[in-house]
Protein 1
Amino acid sequence: MNKHILVIDDDEAVRKSFMLALEETGHRVNTAESGEKGIKKVKATTYDLVFLDLKMPGLNGVETLRQLRQLDIAVPVYIVTAFHKEFLKDLKLLSDDGIDFELLKKPIGSDEIIELTESMLGY
């Protein structure tokens, strides 16, 4: 069964790498270049999995995830970032507030993207 995946990242190359990695899996993949646009897409469409960058202009990944959870959206979120150390305090606060997410450090290869996606979606 095809699932619907959203990739929220301000880096176009990262968004394209997820699209390319997942294009042959049969899943539908949408992208958003900012937290604000990602939230709009999640409000309009039901997603089965979200990949989320932390360091973005405007609404960063921590605040994007908080807003998603405030909307009572329980979609699994995988934070993919090269800046996890910079956000450790904020990530701990998310966890302390009961906001669930998974964390992975960039860079991430195509095979890993596919494996994580299948694992998160229960394949």
Protein 2
Amino acid sequence: MDNNLKRSIILEHYQNPHHRGLIENSTYLKTNMNNESCIDELNLMVKVEDGIVKDIRFDGEACALCISSASIMTDTLIGKKVEQVEDILQNFLNMVSEKEYNKEILEQAIVYDEVSKTPNREKCVLLSWWGIEKILNELKAK
């Protein structure tokens, strides 16, 4: 993907994030994620019904990469079966870690395929994805 297109997608999701804003609903699983090396702090809410991620909400104070990554993540994961979400998540983590991954399933999240070139920004991009991983692990433990 062209670098200008990547920047454009990231900027659009930062300026107009999708699924931003928390709601009062006890059926959502919740977690708080923060990046100890900067100001990034996100609250995530995930609704899973019948093995499908029905909704993901987020809010918090964070940098452009963190907000855009959370927005893109919500678009990528909502409506998918939990098993698909786990596969996409693992492939995203592999991509950021410069391991083998399937770029076909990452949808717009592929815009972060070069974030490893700036290691100090990896946590910004990963924060919301780690939050989903944490919530899915809690769901499995139930």
Protein 3
Amino acid sequence: MAASEIDGYLRALDEPKRSTLEEMRRRILEIVPKSEQCLSYSVPAFKIQGKTFAGLAAFKNHLSYLPHSGSVLAQLQDELGRYKQTKSALHFAVDEPLPGHLVRSLILVRLRECGLL
């Protein structure tokens, strides 16, 4: 699987979902530039050393950040207060990407869990 699959996923989205997820993709790649981009469970995902550490998904009324772990969001509750969430997904507006500092925190917690930090 290649980054082109994520390109296809994003092309199929309407604005502003497309540009918001494109910005999220850029933010993830700035933090972990050597990420392997792929689809996981039919949505964009990012791996390093074979371990998935982040994912993105578009829905009708929101976008989701997927940490690919049931414990990442629980560890960051103080930072996530205003966002709706499930155990495995952080929901955010279709026209506003997550702040860069929050994306960094989400990724670092997951990479520590994976033993990659």
